[in-house]
Structure formats: C-alpha cells, structure tokens
Amino acid sequence: MNFKFVLNIIGRILLIIAIFMMTIIPWVIYFHENSILPAIEESIAIPLIIGLILILFTKRYKKEIGPKEAYIVASSAWIIMGIAGSLPFWLSHTTSSFVDALFESISGFTTTGSSILADIEAAPKSVLYWRSLTHWIGGMGIIVLTVAIFPSLRIASYRLFSSESSGIDSSKLKPKTSSMAKRLWGIYIALTAIMTVILMMGGVNFYESLCHAFASIATGGFSTKNASAGFYSPFVQYVMMFFMLVSGINFALHYGLLKGRFKSVINNVELRVYLGIIFFVGSCISLTLYFKQGLPFEQAFRDSFFQVISIITATGFASADYLQWNQFCWLLIFLLMFVGACVGSTGGGIKVIRHVVAFKAISRVFNQILHPHHVKSIQINKTSISEDKVQAIVTFIFIYLLIFFVGGMCLLATGLDPASAFSASITCMGGIGPGLGTVGPASNFAHLTDVAKIILPILMIIGRLEVLSFLVMFTPSFWKEYKN
C-alpha cells in the first residue's frame, strides 16, 4: 500500500477545501456577520494546517497509483470533505451538534440536498453560501472522479466517454485526462455563470442567484429559502427547471454539442429515454393535477414538470408540496427516485443507461424462451455490450436495491414510519433530497435520531460512489487479488 500517496491526496483535498472556505469571508463582511468571523477563520485554519502538514510530510511519494490506492482515495475523499466541510456549520453554531453539522456537510458534498435545518432563513447567510458551495464542489468532484480515477481502473460503468454511455467516440476527445477534465470544468463553470446571470435578470439578487446556480448545476437542491423554489416567480422556476434538466445530461454530450456532433447527441439512447421518461411522467401528473385537483393548467404543468425534473435529476428543489397531491402522483414520484439521471452527469441515482441495459437483458431472456436458437447481443448506440458488462450492470442494480432495503429496515428500527424510512433510504442513496412522509418536501430531517443521521450520510456516500467502488474495499478477495 502506497500510504504516502493516499495521505498526500488527502492533504491536497483539505487544502482545496480550505481555499474554497476562504470565499466565505467576503460574505461575512458583506452581511455584517462579524460575530461568526472567528468561527469561520478557525474552520479555514484547521484543514489548511492539516493539509499543509500532510503534503509536506509526503512530498516524496511514489507517483504510481494502484487499484487499492485509487479506491481508498475515491472513497475517503467524501468522508474527508464531509468532516472538513462540517466545521463552518458546527463552529458557528448553525447546527446544534457535530452530528447535524456532519449530516449537512455530507449531504452538501454528495449533492443530496437533505437538510436538518428547521429554519433555513434564520441561519447566517454566509454559512448558507458555504452550504450551497458544497454542492458545487461535490458536483465538480464527481466529474473529476469519473474522468480521472475510475477509467484508469477499467470500470466500465464509470467510463464517461465510452461509446456505450455517451454515444460519442472517445478517440475524438483530447487524449490527456487533464485536458478532458479542464474542458468539462469549463462547461460546468460556464453553465453556473449563465444561470446566475439569467436568474438576476429575473429579479433575484446576486447572492441568491449564485447559491441557486451552485445547487442547480450540481443537482444538489439546497436553497436559501424555507419554501425552496416555491418562494420564487414562475420565470425563476422555469429557469431552474431548464438548468436542472441540462445538468442531468451526460457532460460528454455537452462537449459533443460544442464540437458540433449534433447527430450523435440526438441519437443517444440514454438521452432519449431520459427525456421520454420526464415527458411521460410529467404529462401524467400534469393531467392529474389539472383534472383531479383543479389546478390551472399552467400551474399544473409547471408544478408537475418541476418536481419530476427535480426528482429524476436528484436535485431535490421543491416548488410545491407533492404530498398534497393524490396517491397516484405519490407513486410516480416514488418510482422516479429509483431512476436517476444520465451517466456522466452531476445527477445521482441508478442512472438511466443501466435501466436501459437491464430492460434489454430482460427482453432478451423472454426472446430466448420463444426462440431458443436465436442469439442476440445487447446493443447501445449501435455498439454491442459485452456479457461481462451486462452482468455487472444487473448485479449493480440488485445490490443497489438490496442496500436500499437494508437501509430502510435500519431506519425503521430508529422509530421512523415505513413511508419515511424507505423513502429516506432511497432519497439519500440517490442524492435526491426530500422523500415521503415526515421527510417530505415541506419538512426536513431534523427530527431524526442521531443514529438515523449517521446511517443516512453513509447511504449518501455509498450511493454517490455508485455502491460497488465503496463496497469492494470491504471484500477480502479485493485485498488478496490486487497487490502492488
């Protein structure tokens, strides 16, 4: 094990977090929140000093990275970010305990958006800025992990530029990983800037526009208002809908559009299914709200599609309390929590492409029953998927659902009712935010026990790391098979 490499990366992560934290200070000054300035300074100093010590102590480390180091770095990064990011919440007394602060921080960095803040608007605005910024850092972190770490481990489900997931020939992209990451970061930053400007054009001040742009582009869901997106005008809600929708799309497709590869983008199977699900479910709920609950058509359309896009992209913003809708709408919302966004996006969940492959695999089984001698491979974007990849995807979905069930059972044991327990489990695994029951869009997670507040962040990290890359470290065969 190359421990110096792991410690060096952890040091760099802490240093980056400290640098991002420094941007809180201008907001402290602007909002005249001088009483929490010492807490913010201490929050910056702790990761900064520890990070510098780790970097200096391990400055002579081997550059080689093996599977063990990569998995440990990928998994520990979220834990380290969560602990360091909790300091502004805890030291400023925005949260009443370290467990609450850790919950809020991990929820932010994993772009989950579940919150324990009972009165968001009562919290210091500078801390709320940091709360939204954790989304943006975490969303960018997903892109870095996807582009830089997992392809080197030959994990097919993480290959952002593979023809199976994006429909774009990876050979047409820049060969260096750093070049690819820079271009994706450029798109990420550009989308954030554009959304901020458009929200300001809609009458939202710069501070709130920036915070909501952070949360929308990262598909996070933290708002600076108790009413979330419901506080804002229909224009603002439509803007948020559009950028949530765009952020749930594979970032390689954004790159393809910039390169003029319109045909490959339009013909991308995952994108078409993703948009199709949104249109179908959104239309069903819209018609239900219009005919059954008597809402004006425009409001029914807006409320429906906003919630559908927010759930499927795992953003978690709410413009309406969908628990006030009828049970048919509840069922559709709950099922959407298992879908997820596109692979290679900042969105969470199982991911649309996995459902497509699993559906094709099931269809092939029935076809082989009817036609035993007919052998047919599974194709995505006119590219055949190997049997190993198909098996890996089906296994992933099975394990994902198993962990969801176990998580729900554990939450039941803490005293939650079934609807709240199982929806909290899937919403945190999928990085969605609100659930059903007592953790619905009009409520929060503050009433949960400390045990539940520890279980849920674990589910957030497992879900954000897409299950297998986290669990593989706990298998004896992994440590025996992969040796430096």
TrEMBL record:
Q: Per the record, GO CC terms?
A: plasma membrane
Pfam families found in the cross-reference section: TrkH
Spell out the subcellular localization from the entry. Cell inner membrane
Protein's organism: Ancylomarina salipaludis
Annotated protein name in UniProt: TrkH family potassium uptake protein
Membrane topology, as annotated = Multi-pass membrane protein
Where it mainly occurs, coarsely classed, is membrane
The UniProt annotation places K(+) binding at T111, T112, G220, T315
Segments traversing the membrane: 12-30, 36-58, 70-91, 133-153, 184-207, 235-253, 273-292, 304-323, 330-350, 392-414, 421-442, 454-474
**MF terms (GO), sorted A to Z:** metal ion binding; potassium:chloride symporter activity
Q: Which InterPro entries match?
A: Cat_transpt, TrkH
Entry similarity comment: Belongs to the TrkH potassium transport family.
Please, which domain of life does this record's source organism belong to?
Bacteria
Q: Which UniProt keywords apply?
A: Cell inner membrane, Cell membrane, Ion transport, Membrane, Metal-binding, Potassium, Potassium transport, Transmembrane, Transmembrane helix, Transport
